[in-house]
Design a protein that fits this description.
heterodimer; A: 137 residues; mainly beta; Immunoglobulin-like; four-stranded antiparallel beta sheet; 1 helix; 3% helix; B: 147 residues; three-stranded antiparallel beta sheet; 8 strands; 10% helix
Chain lengths: 137, 147
């Protein structure tokens, strides 16, 4: 699989029992996690809020030129527990980003801490910014 | 001329409003009033609350906060969680998206009347703050034996 960078070996498991009453409507596509994306001279950094996702249930991968972030919320619920209020009604997060050629997808690094995912996408050395001079007539 | 659009009988707007009312009734909008301390959907942090006969579990989705700096208090049956998540932007970088919440937050959650304020346990894991609150004994359903 030349175009696939598997950053975690394991695919997400089937979603755990959600603490939600209306999971049907959103469960297929899942939630779109909020992200910050910024660029410096050496590459791009993506930060995503994925509360409730453990390292084992996170899946970050590149398929062709698309970066895919997926994760499942795992919350173990005690017996006889019923949802009385739920802002979060899905247990699945997913978001995709189209990457471009100058990014070095083979060297993407990802880390997860306290439900925040950090993905670092380096730029290829040969494509560091080159200043274009504007000629004056 | 415009009166014909909003006329008394069978106008488009009336039909739309009737449909809206039917939908609202269907989803219980009239019967369930909005909590006076509730926040609009999408506010930070998201909250889920679960109840069982002997306790309540409150889940606050708080990624990337310092759990030691969270302020959790219960006064009677009002649970208040406040704190801050200050994201320091990288001055050297150019930002394309800044969707993640930054700043101070506070959420007030009205719990059922029968919560016991002692014996409350709070745990922070994978960016989720879980607060377990026991319920008072007498509130639990009792099995009545038929003689």
């Amino acid at each position: 699989m030349p175009n696939q960078t598997e950053l975690t070996a394991q695919r997400p498991q089937a979603p755990a029992a959600p603490l939600s009453r209306a999971s049907e409507s959103e469960s297929e596509s899942g939630m779109r996690p909020p992200v910050d994306v910024f660029e410096d001279a050496d590459g791009l950094t993506l930060l995503a809020d994925l509360p409730g996702v453990s390292k084992e249930r996170l899946n970050v991968r590149v398929e062709r030129d698309t970066l895919i972030v997926e994760g499942d919320v795992q919350i173990t619920l005690p017996d006889q527990m019923q949802a009385v209020y739920a802002d979060i009604r899905s247990t699945h997060y997913q978001r995709r980003f189209a990457l471009s050629d100058e990014l070095e997808t083979e060297r993407i690094e990802a880390s997860l801490k306290d439900g925040v995912l950090t993905v670092r996408i380096p730029k290829r050395a040969e494509t560091k910014p080159r200043r274009i001079e504007v000629r004056t007539a | 001329m415009f009166s014909s659009l909003s006329g008394p009988a069978g106008s488009v707007f009336d039909q739309f409003r009737r449909l809206q009312e039917e939908m609202d009734e269907l989803f219980g909008q009239w019967s369930a009033p909005t909590g006076i301390r509730s926040l609009p959907r999408g506010s930070f942090p998201a909250v889920n609350v679960g109840a069982s006969p002997d306790k309540l579990e409150v889940y606050l989705f708080l990624p990337g906060v310092d759990s030691k700096r969270l302020d959790i208090s219960i006064q009677q049956n009002l649970l208040i969680v406040s704190g801050e998540r200050n994201l320091a932007p990288d001055e050297q970088a150019n930002y394309y998206r800044q969707e993640r919440f930054s700043g101070e937050f506070r959420r007030a959650i009205t719990l059922p009347e029968d919560v016991a304020t002692d014996g409350v346990d709070a745990q922070y894991r994978d960016g989720v703050l879980q607060i377990s609150i026991p319920r008072r004994e007498q509130a639990r359903p009792r099995q009545i034996q038929v003689r």
